[in-house]
Structures
1.
Amino acid sequence: MQQPRKRVVVVGGGTAGWMAASAIAKLLPHAASVELIESAEIGIVGVGEATLPHLRAFIQTLGLDEIRFMAATHATYKLGIEFRDFGKPGDCYLHPFGDFGRPLDDVPFLHWWLRMHALGQGGDLGEYCVANVMAAQRRFAPPAADPETLLSTYGYAYQFDATRFGPYLRIFAEANGVTRTEGRIVSVERHPETGDVTAVVLESGGRIHGDLFVDCSGFRSLLLGDALGEAWEDWSHWLPCDRAMALPCTSPPGEIEPLTRATAMPAGWRWRIPLQHRVGNGYVYSSAHLSEDEASAAILAAVEGAPLADPRVLRFKAGRRKRSWSHNVIAVGLASGFLEPLESTSIYLVQVAIQQLIDLFPIGAIEVADRAEFNAQVDYEYDRIRDFLILHYHASTRDDSAFWRDVRHTAIPNSLTEKIELFRRAGRIQRYSRGLFFAPSWIAVLIGQGIMPKGWDQRVDAANPQELGPALERLRGQIAREVATLPGHRAALGLPA
Amino acid sequence: MSGRAIRSIAILGGGIVGLSAAAAFARALPQLAVTVIDTPLDPAALADRLPGSTSAIHRFHASIGVDEQALLRAGAALPRLGLRFENWSAAAGTWYHVHGEHGALAGKIPFHQLWARARREGRAEAWHLYAPAGALAEAGKFVHPQPGTPLAAFDYALRLEPGRYRELLAALADRLRVTRFAGAFGGVERRANGDLAALLLEDGRRVEADLYVDASGPAAPLAAVFSNRFEDWRGALPFDRVEIGEAPPSAADPNDTVIGGTRDWQFASSLPGKTLLGRIHASSDGNDDSSIAIRRGRRAEPWIRKVLALGDAAVALDPLHWPNLHLAQSGIARAIELLPGRDCHPVETAEYNRRSRAEAERMRDFQALHYLRAGAMIEVPESLAHVLEQFERRGRFVHQDEDGLLEEVWIAALLGLGVVPHAIDALASAVPADATASRMAEMRVGLARLPGRLPPYADYLLRCGARGT
């Protein structure tokens, strides 16, 4: 009954590689042996410092201790992503990891707010979101367990030093039986009939055989792209940014903001990710609109602290391989596709691929149906994130640079047009049961970038504004009071004030 | 919203569906003027005539203010725990389809994975026997779920006596100040832009509203004015006729009985004061005048311009698992949630139609699964083939958008119908088989003890004040 263990070869030892190796070794020790090949000469991209709340589930599933993980990676807490100047210069909104208010009589909170907003009352939507208020006050506490309480209505993620996450997981993975082989892969051997990858050959002449190959080789896509020639689906017409100029700098004094900031720039946008010991910065831009020297100068001028390195450029393209799983090769992370880190989705996409691989781990031979199912699930995630990213560029009235004029006038996918138009009518969000970015995320970005619904749920019409107004006022007050009792972010991290 | 909000709704059809819609709209939107035109009941309107529901009915009732105790006392309803399937497929003997938790021992590993392995090893009994509701169903007993006890995690449905249930809804609609009058469809008056200007009745009356609902049954004369595009599901569902009969009340049974056959299937369902009987078959198999046609399909655009089709006007399936009233109620709730502005802009109605289609297709797939397993020659919808393939291979359940059926409902049917996964997931295979088997045996013993302490179904109903049992 028990199948022989599969030999899994993980190619590449960055964040994706060590995450995949750790998860497979920990969860499927009876079904797989794991060997990871990495070369110290090949750097890792490692800019994926901002994560989404889903990473917490990954940490928990592996049984890792959160405190130790955060200490090892110099991590901070993250309550959302703040967007500055996207809709128009001067705009600022948070995409929070949490809900806006709570439904009342089965009607989502947004509609009650829209009604009062139309009367010029009700304040900012963000005042009804615990994560928003907490982030603005630079406070943090883990969400309350009791779902009845306001302090249970948010989640959180981490901001960490990605160059430390891989090495941290390596210790865990090796303790769980992963073998690590140092070496550079020079060729790939394939079965003459099936076309499956049979082995990878190292520079040293060593040959590593496997049943399944997990391609975590990053942009090079050594197995899926190079060896198997899987076609590339290009999305750069929607998402033209193709460079990032990264520059870490020292932390400013004072409280650490529990949020990642994205600020619109003339040829793209700039991230700011506060860690315990430094601040990560980077300018994501379109090389058609900006030279490397200009980008370098721009990021040096923009950072608040002292630079800790020279600006370093990364090159990429938006898009994905048509299939992430082909033959016996499963690409995870950048080897499968790339979407700019505007919504901190890189590590999430790594996690999705690992989760699906574990769920669909071959029982005997690899079945076509399982591969197709894996690819369908990955596609579903990519498509939804893609639309969400495009929205940030499309819903803008910026007219101050060629880049913004270009991106905001680019034709968008029909699926996104429908979502925007539906929201514009009466604040409704297309409903899906799976994947990333549910209603609160869409609401935050749509309203944050100036798409205000013309109407609202008609069940709200029967409410008396004389009563609704004060009720909203009380909710805002309660959130403000409860958040004010929480510790500051540094205190929550156990750091000196 | 005030400038574009819907102010009035006219509902064609005063059966269960039309009155449910009237009550729901009037309660959720008290500012609305709701009118019901009580057309003669179309005998082919299955959602109005067949009394079964799903466990989702409680939520709908709560939203319109219908109290289950009141229904029981009025003799308008009886609770239904599950379906007893007899002779449905060669692979499965008699089994029960119940709602609720099955197994509760495996942490994050789905219990059905462990069950599948034990089953293949000859170490598992029927799937329903690992559910509290299944243990009750097999013993012919019922109680309402009791929080904090082993009898907490299950759900049940209601069987409605159509006449009394309709009266109750009519009284509710009246209390909610719905205007009702008798009339018959006579035609429509349209604006220059093609929109509906007014609904005309046979006696010459003219009814004007911002939104019109066609709840008059499968012929849907009002909805048909705009489009008759129909998605035909006859390939997936073999039977197009249902005969309905009644028998005197036998001993009240908390389960409906479904008896399979090679050319038809039959059901028996306890209602207050009677037993409802039905036979579902194909017209090609010898016609008869007394049977009702089942259209098996859906209107491609149930919401088109200012007309919303509900009930059989929108979608019809056969009675297996009682989907018709369920889909009607779900459509009403969705229409309220997505109620468009007065112009019924296509962007807004498209979302209603998208979700309606997905939901109805899942229900169609669920029925088709039963026919496939009974050996019927059907065209298997691609979406069902996908579900079956993944489940059969490795017990993976593929969740699809807008599925109104919970995963546990699908899995109870898949396993009950003998779709036992060939293998289990790598993750589940790490759980030791022997320890699982002994835990399962203990669980089974514990569950089997539950019904002994409970009163017979009829006695329990009396305690609830139910009439006509």
2.
Amino acid sequence: MNQEHIEQYVAGRMSESEAQAFEDYCLANPEFARQVEYEQRLKAGIAQVARGSTAEFVRAPHPLPWTIAAAASVLVALVVSLYVFNSGTRAVAPSILAAATSAPYDGPSLRLALVRGSDTAPSLPPGVVRVEIVGLFDMGHQYSVALDRLEQNKKIDTVATLNDQNPSSPVSLVVIVDSRQLRAGPYSLRVRKQASGEEALDFGFVKY
Amino acid sequence: MDFVPGGELSRRIRQGDVSAESELIRQFEPGLRVLLRRRTGGDHGLLQDLVQETLLIVIQRLRGEGIADPQKLAAFAAQTARNLAIASLRKTERQRTDVDSEATDRKADSTQSVDRIASDHEAALAVRALLRELPQPRDRLMLKRFYLDDHDKELICQELDLSEAAFNQALSRARRRFRQILEERGFAKRDLLSLGL
């Protein structure tokens, strides 16, 4: 018996007869059985931690420097050019929320993650801000991102929505928010896995 | 601890050797915990009860009539534990069928959930400590993918751009550290203490 058998047993991938033979072996080999029990406990512990939130699996212990290349997108360029263009004409309202790609980006940035026990919302810097949403993302799926303004009367006003967004990595999804077009107040980016029954995740921030 | 063959343990217990009973407990308890953990769905109280009940039945049997093939003592103990787990499951199912009272159900559920919380609490604390110590987000995600999402190693390696060797190394490191954290917190000692027959 080896580690592979332990993994199969703990993951429930053995047939009943294989599992019984494995268990008989455990009874005859107490030290091996202890190894198996630690594996069972690790799996159970991870399930328990994840039951509250999976944020702990992606949250960095300390704020990380931007290790991923700063992103700006073709759409950002479009947003900016639209803004520059529109600042003269004011004919079309520029986008508030835009998708991002991995092109280099030197502007302000904000990182949003679900941190349990945190009672202060991060603040959105001024300007066209690259916002990295940290969570667990399925690279095979697309996500919708909605920018909600949270009114004092608990009313939620959706000010912009982006659909069909691809995560930039299994742990991040990047969008661009034009802070200059937002009134001061609390906001939330609501991220939902499209074509799934999964609940949306809300990442709050404040615009001062 | 040296393994004592079932035949020798059976003979000594039959002769009234109390130290042989202690050896039997030390020898079989870890394996019984593994077997019953799988069958008790994280109910720590039930797990402890069934481990003790199994050991008690095996010892009493050896003190009395003995077993047909003493060389297969481990298999006998394992089967006893399985039978007890099945009986316990049936009993629970019967109670659920017989008693159609919402209040009773609520009470039973809350008792079970308290046990479950107690059961997972130590492991959850150790996992949290482990996650805090892992510097790479990739390592934390790897644990989630492997243990929670039950993804294949190959798939995880592909997704996280890891070689199989790097994956195994990181996993092995995490396991060692998890065990160390639990041992530092007294997990092993507490479990041994709770097993007095």
3.
Amino acid sequence: MTATTEPLETAASRGALPRFRSLLSRFGIFLILPILVVIGGAASTSFLSTGNISNLLLQIAPLGIVVIGQTFVMIVRGLDLSVASMMATAAVIATGFAGSNADIASIVAAVAGTSICVGLINGFLVAKRGVSPFLATLATMILLQGFRFAYTQGAPSGNVPPFFRTLGSGKTYGIPNNCVILLVVVAFFWIVLHRSAFGRRVFIVGGNPVTGHLLGIRTDVVTIACYLISSCLAGAAGLILSGYVGLVDNWVGQGYELDSIVACVIGGVSLKGGRGSIAGALAGAATIMVAANEVLLFGLPIQVQIIIKGVVIVFAAALYAG
Amino acid sequence: MTGAVAAFPAWRNHGGLLGVVVLIAAVFILGATLTDRFLSLGNIVNVYEQSTDLALVSLGQTLAILTGGIDLSVGSLISLTSCLTSGLINGDPNRVIPVVLAVLALGAVIGLLNAGLVIVLRVHPLIVTLGMSAILQGATLFYAMGPIGKVPRNFTFLAYGRIAGLPVGATIAVLLFILIALFLRYLPLGRQIYAVGDDDDAARLAGLRRTQVLLLVYGASGFCCAATGLYLVARFGAGQPYTGVNYTLTSITPVILGGTALSGGRGGVIGTLFGAYLISLVNNLLNFMDVSKHYQLIAQALIIILAVSVYMDRRRTA
């Protein structure tokens, strides 16, 4: 955690057991995840098998990438509901060409172009027009959905180029390729958020925009940049996910908008902005995926998975609300 | 802005009303120039009828948003109540009244539960209702994996019946809107909804009944969802586990179009009613113009962007 977040933490942790609470809200997620893993290992022999772990990692990567972008947006007091729609749009674009490796450059360019437009629209509406982030990103979510449906006429067809298949579902020496990508993305954005001047500005703008403004920070530029990061990462995650699922329909990535927000919240990223970390959010994403994996592994009905997610989000948030 | 409970200038709550009425007029003029049938009585009644479900959900949503909160559990609650309605009635006319009453009560109770969690856990309503949404969807899927049950023929009266030429469901919705509008305008608790949304801390310090306000607002939202669930069963003849999914987000659009600020404290339900009519009108017009459903989504998104950019929430620009 950076020094800029300290005053907020002390203010937020007034309670019966302030120190314990503050520790819990900072590191709680790093406790929950190992507990889940231990439960999984104890209850099912196949949970810790290399096959299952490698599959888990494969599933975590796309969500992990989206969550990093969501973290930036949430730290500047925002929310990005358009990520899932952006992912699906990227996946539809990936199948929009002939499906050979020759199209990779055009696909990446088209996805990057769309992502940048979406990020700019979101950021502009929020930072320049004072629109609530919830609404601005809801609008772009529906807008993208409309364009997607209009383009595919409801039924996407075509193939994902083999290159994306390799990226999304291939493994090198048993390590999923998409996890390598995740690691690179994480390393880069960890430095950006926690070790760069820009990252400091992100925390200041999220912690107190007025202070940021008085310090001479272009709060609008910082905010727009965060929405740009989020939509671009969502586009990338969409390409990787399309490679993972292979089949593309209009709903690839459905649910990722809420899952990514849940991951951030249980990972200690404050909904009020100004607080959060990449590591926490990633651990949140891993927790969601591990929990989902265990529900299936234990042979519990799929409905339980949904209900657990609901209960976890409310109580994890309560833990941080203090 | 504090202490504004008594001295609210009336226009401040209805500024958005003007915008939505102008937009509706514009759509009318556009429609009239494009096709003769658009202004026919039959079509107007049609638009009125088709707005029922959206109007009902958005009514509760407006109240939640007025307090500065939001209710994201509406979609799942509609799915759950519609499945329970048709599943429990299952074609038996004698069960209609008890089941309808039970379902309406269940909706209100789940709303109260939302409010209770918001109050006790001190978590933002966005998160509480999001979690509740997942729990309710899971519960719905436990009860029904596909379309379930059926309702007696006379149950469809709620959706297709006419009294004096007016569709029953839509007219009930309008009456509910008027009732709530009067409540918001004239009763102390109604005024306190604005106070809590305007400045939560100030409302608390002023000794206002924040707990009652939240319980009332989310309870009412749950009740409205149950009513929507009943209406959808009447329209489709059976409940489906995903029937409500889209309402979670679409219920917010009429609220915003009607000029209610997402940050709370400003707006009103009548604007929402007109917002629902506007959406119903636009979809109807696009149907006349043979525009596919896909472009209707784009139109809806553009309307939202237009509306939110025009209204621009002054308090957020600080």
